Amino acid sequence: MYELKRIGLNEKAQIKKLFKDVFTNEPWNDDWSDEEQLNMYMNDLIGQSYSLTYGLYDSDELIGLSMGYIKHWFRGTEYYIDELCIRTDRQGEGIGTFFMNEIEKAIGSIGIKKIFLQTDTFAPAYEFYKKRGFIEEKGHVSFSKEI
């Protein structure tokens, strides 16, 4: 069966491989060909004192990944997920739901009260999160500016 593990820099090679395999393909099509940029991004996500990364394993194989950080907020401690994925060829098997349930149990056991994340409304992940009880934050908007 599947096993949830808290992972980090020691598993960086596995993390990078799964991340690239998922996010350089449909529907994301992100360009992670710049290895230096990818390494810096991975260090941002998994190499900080407040990083919180979970891997979902099927035997010794990493098939799910959640990378984010712990944020101490006035309403309580939150897990802010920056990246979450299931290996593309394993999607649609209920693994994502299992993974989210295990993450919720794990963070609850360490006193985290809320998960916060962002996704694109056109992405399949949007419906995935809605079906699992996530609600859109009213009045919250993301901004960006190219410079």
Description of the molecule:
The chain is α+β, with helices and mostly antiparallel strands. The chain has a single domain, classed as Aminopeptidase. The chain has four helices and five strands, in the order E-H-H-E-E-E-H-E-H. It has a five-stranded mixed beta sheet, with helices on both faces. The protein starts with a strand and ends in a 16-residue tail after the last helix. The model has no long low-confidence stretch (mean pLDDT 95).
- Computed CA radius of gyration, to the nearest angstrom: 15 Å
Largest sheet: 5 strands, mixed
Structural class: alpha+beta
What's the rounded overall pLDDT mean?
95
Give unreliable regions as ranges. Answer: none
User: What's the CATH superfamily, by name?
Assistant: Gcn5-related N-acetyltransferase (GNAT)
| Percent in strands | 25-35%
DSSP E strands, number: 5
Which features would summarize this protein structure in a list?
single chain; 147 residues; alpha+beta; Aminopeptidase; five-stranded mixed beta sheet; 4 helices; 29% strand; globular
Give the gist of this structure:
The protein has helices spanning 12-23, 35-46, 95-109, 124-131; strands spanning 2-7, 51-58, 61-73, 76-86, 114-117. With 147 residues, it is α+β, with helices and mostly antiparallel strands. Helix 3 (95-109) links the parallel strand 4 and strand 5.
